[in-house]
Specification:
The longest helix has 21 residues. The protein is of the alpha/beta class and 272 residues long. The protein contains six helices and six strands, in the order βαβαβαβααβαβ.
Amino acid sequence: MSRQLTFTYRTITGYFLQDELSTVAESFDFISKNFGLLEKNYEADGVHPGEGEKTQWQRFEQEVARLNDEAPSGTFYKRYWAAQEGDSTSTWVDPHLTNTGIQQAKTVHAFWTHQLAVAKTPAPEKYYSSPLYRCLETANLTFTGLDLPADRPYEPVVKELLREANGIHTCDRRSPKSTLIHTFPNFIFDPSMTEQDELWSATQRETNEELDTRMKMLLDDVFGSEGEGRFVSLTSHSGAICSLLRVLGHREFRLVTGGVIPVLVEAVREGG
């Protein structure tokens, strides 16, 4: 059996407004700010012809490629979009999006449509989602129907590790696997996922430390999978995204409901 690869992570700052301590999370509008991408020059500028005709996002994509090309063995760079699910009611098990949440996801869909066509934002190469119903809805409403490159289709994968902080709150208890497969047939479900939610506890809530450990496992799984792409989308929840940012060494940045945050991540393989 091959050894599970593990990594040490850090956020590479200086590329997005959300990296900067002066940016106020509560009032930040990622839609009006081009996802938060800073207007700046990159070391990759000048290497490729026609830079003046490229958008900031196209030049950023070249910069990520440069970072990977010049990185020492065992070091990798990926750009993550972490998207928080839209508004949902929290009064029953695995709730669905509210009408407000549906509209929030449709707004992000319209923004992605613009970004792909005008800003030339690189489409994600991989799409991952929490298995909770509201996240699966959010991912489909956001990405289904976009004009994506042929080599970057929307083929979402469910990751049990990407779910919200677990326990006590019934809204964070997963639906049966068969129900989710029937309702969301376009998602790829891990064969190891159990039919019933065996992770949720009625008496114990995950601590931040336990949640951070789980998010580290998730990132190790994504970075350790060959060919998982340099641009990755994660659709998850407020607590889980806060945990991801802690593991990545990012400043605290609480997303508004339905919000998106981009992060440039450096991963260094542990043990050489």
